[in-house]
Amino acid sequence: MLTLEQLEAQIAGLQEEVTQAMQIASRHGDEHTGEGLDPYEPKAANVLLPIIGEPTYDDGEDANTLFHSAGWFSGGVVSDVGGGNVTISAGTGVLRSGASATTQLLFFDWPELATQAITANSIRYVGVEYNGGSPRATIRTSDNFNHFTDFELAIVVNEGGTLYIAQHETHAGDISHNVIERFHQTDHIERDNEEGGLILSDSADGNNDIAVTAGALWTGLDRFAVSAVDTSGAGIFDEYSSQGKENTGSGAWPNTLYDNGSGGTGTLQTMTNNWWANLWWYICTTGNLIMVYGSNHYSTKARAENEALPSTLPNRIIAHGILIGRFIFKKGQDADEVLSAFTETFAVEGVTDHGNLAGLADNDHPQYIQTFLFTIPLGSAEDGSPVTP
Q: Closest Cα partner for 248 from 185, 291, 297?
């Protein structure tokens, strides 16, 4: 037995449903059903969306049409069946009846396409088309799919009777997942180039302080703001070699050491006087600045410039980090070059001083006069020994 309060609540609920149904009928009439609108029939057009004023688009049907695109859901596999022929399996997808982004998006299935010949030494484009309301697979000589009334499934090349099939469907479902996966697998972490920043600098005053300007990093669809770092103040960085972590919370960058890859942590090598080395700098989505020692030291700057990126990196960099730059320096001095990974490709600089070249004393340079030949005393052999008359 219902109480009076319960009965009144039910009546109020029914009144609200009637009011909503009247609003639907008022806003749509028979626009979507074609036979008079039943406000209780579960059609997408009956699902109203929040609006301002009287917009052109205002329901679930409109949202589906405007927020999604023509494309593939399943099936559509192109198979080589021999003799230069292919078949295309049945599949599912969505298409529009007209080449406009506001034309209603229609769900459909298409049937299998039986054996089709691919012309020798040609390129063919496989897709699905609206076909006047009877969707079907199609093979074309040009890539002219408009992605409204048709979309692509694959490209087939017939080279001398051998078929090469590249299946790359126009995905219409689970778009967010596919976009995120694409970013992670092709550009795991990237700098926000519109904001810029993350530019290295050396204090160049003998104190070996380092600064990095503020910026941001993207991973998938997530953006990470990165604060500026300045080790002349409270900023710090961690040091790694190929053997692991060397120091934590450093403030001044080391200009006398290099990593020759031997031993464990704490066994870095001291550079030879007047020789050159590299330091590689990374920033993480966590905001941490990390330095990785160069893998050798070199008698000339030109040789130091040839050094490849570190091949062994800590897990912190692999998971969260991105290269932001590089120092090239002579032992005990400020950085001679501060190179940004965002403005430089780290190509080897052309040698402008002939003295920076290697092998100058070798005897395979007959076109160059070797100065030691002019220092041999008269009456001496090339090695300086006396010549017996």
A: 291
Question: Does 349 have pLDDT greater than 80?
Answer: no
| Chain segment 221-230, per-residue pLDDT in tens | 999 999 999 9
- Report the alpha-carbon distance of residue 261 to residue 240 in Å, rounded: 12
Residue type, 245: K
Higher pLDDT, 125 or 14: 125
Beta-carbon-side half-sphere exposure of residue 2 (alpha carbons within 13 Å): 8
Residue 188 has pLDDT above 50, yes or no: yes
Say which residue, 344 or 56, is predicted with more confidence. Answer: 56
Q: Which helix (H) or strand (E) holds 200?
A: strand 200-202
Q: Which amino acid is at 217?
A: L
Q: How far apart are CA 332 and CA 335, in angstroms?
A: 9
Pick the more confident residue, 130 or 364.
130
- Whole-model pTM? 0.71
- 174-183: long-range contacts, CB 8 A cutoff, minimum separation 24: 176/221, 179/221, 180/220, 180/221, 183/218, 183/219, 183/220, 183/221
Q: Which residues of 72-85 are buried (b: 16+ CB within 10 A; e: fewer)?
A: bbebbbbebeeebe
Q: Using DSSP, state whether 27 is helix, strand or coil.
A: helix
Supply 167's token pair: 């299946």
- pLDDT tier at 48, thresholds 50, 70, 90: confident
pLDDT bin (cut points 50, 70, 90) of residue 37 is: low
Query: What are the structure tokens assigned to 373, written together?
Result: 């030949």
As a whole number of Å, the end-to-end CA separation of the chain is: 139
Q: Would you list the domain boundaries of the chain?
A: 10-65, 71-167, 200-340
Phi, then psi, of 305 in degrees rounded to 5:
-65, -20
Compute the C-alpha angle 52/55/56, nearest 5°: 165
d(CA 193, CA 85): 47
Do the bridges between strand 237-241 and strand 289-298 make them parallel or antiparallel, or are there none, so unpaired?
parallel
CB-based contacts of 75, cutoff 8 Å, min separation 6: 89, 90, 91, 92, 110
